[in-house]
Amino acid sequence: MVLSLLAGIFLLLLLTMIARTMVLQQSKEAAPQTRRTVDEQDALGILSKAVQCKTISHQDPERTDWNEFIRLADLFAQTYPRCESHRITPDAGAYNLVYRFEGENTQAAPALLTAHLDVVGAQEEAWSHPPFSGVIEDGYLYGRGSFDCKVQAVAILTAFESLLAQHKRPKRTFYVAFGCDEECNGSQEGACSIASWFEKQGISFAYVLDEGGVVSQRYIKGFDQDIAVVGVAEKGYMDVELSAASSAGHSSTPSFPTALGLVCQAVQSLERRTMPARLTVPVRAMLDSLGRQAKFPFRLLFLNLWITKPMLLGIFSRSPTLNALIRTTVVPTMIEASDKSNVIAEQAKAMVNVRLLPGQTPDDVLAWMEKVIRNPKVKLKAVRFTPASEVSPAKGEAFDHLEKTITACFDHVLVTPYLMLGATDARKYQKLSKHIYRFTPVRMDRSEVERMHGVDERISEQNIRLAATFYATLIQG
Length: 477
Known about the structure:
The structure is a single chain. The protein has helices at 2-24, 43-51, 66-79, 81-84, 146-165, 191-201, 259-272, 281-293, 296-302, 305-317, 320-326, 362-373, 397-409, 446-449, 461-476, and strands at 87-88, 97-101, 111-116, 136-137, 140-142, 174-179, 208-217, 226-234, 236-245, 249-250, 329-336, 343-344, 347-356, 379-386, 413-420, 436-445, 458-460. By secondary structure, the protein is α+β, with helices and mostly antiparallel strands. The strands form 4 sheets. Strands 1, 2, 3, 6, 7, 8, 15 and 16 form an 8-stranded mixed beta sheet that branches. It has a 4-stranded antiparallel beta sheet with strand order 11-13-9-14, covered by helices on one side. A 3-stranded antiparallel beta sheet has the order 4-5-17. The relative contact order is 0.19.
């Protein structure tokens, strides 16, 4: 009798799930939007020259070669003369670029398109082509910043230059802002300065669009279609220093544990554990959106979290990318001890980088780390913290316009909100808009995206054209 009762309950649950899945099925037919083309522009050649500007930013601005940023600004001024006439020179940072393009509808709130001009460094000997040479080979442009994110700056200016050449205006007024220090988490030089200037002028935006998710190929195993992931929020950022002290001395007469050994044990403990999984608002929105557009098995899984959540968390935990969507990640990145091989260090330190889910606090993370390490000799100190961003709506006029533009420019694509894993300049503009989105209009698989801060960063010629077409469509839609 008990087995019959359990079987009946299971059958009832299954029927409920199937019925709910069928009801929630949705074919997202966005209102058609015309794909806009751009006039012939040598965007590929311009981007190659832009990559040759070695705009590496540093945490200490004194180490940054600002002449390279001047070179890039001059390149844009010469290449995009019509855009240059719309450049404004506010007190918003000497090495930032800000433009204003007045729209046909002057009553509509303006929008802001952003990107950054700075790049991370590169170890030249590891590259197949010099990272700042802008080499074009086999349909790809190689170079540091080619994807992250000078392609975005070039595509935006290409779209506006083309529109102005036709003596046309965008539908609404657009501001364009390129910051100079995103890669070092933005001091007061870049987007912070730009946002402050906008705020002082009383300018707010219908929406802000920054770099972010891409049109991803094979993002989730089992989905045939490409998925355009639009960041509606981004995780928080924290650096935690682990330190330990012990007796110093000569390596010929060691005593244990050493300070380095204590820190290494702590690091190993952190690598063996993960923080608890949790579904945040942006990830729930992603699952709901994909579930309504997906094939039946995925609809069943994504739209019935009330019963499938444990299974889903287990599946996501097996993929580094998907795992980072459901938990705060903790990873050791730097270590420091003696500066000589025959000297036992009196003190050792390690740096641990943490990317926090929305709602997670530094105290939560530090308490978890102390519990995992279980050694009072290892001291923890948060040395840097930026909270997770606010969550922007995944519905409404702004998101719908973005979705229509994506589907007009990229064939057979699903569009979904998601949680950005990395940090962008977008959060600097939170006081200026409630609708902040993060999307880079290119089609890439995971292996291509992983080149971003790595060896042989590159962008395809096709993606350069797609990016320019996307912005041309966006500003005229």
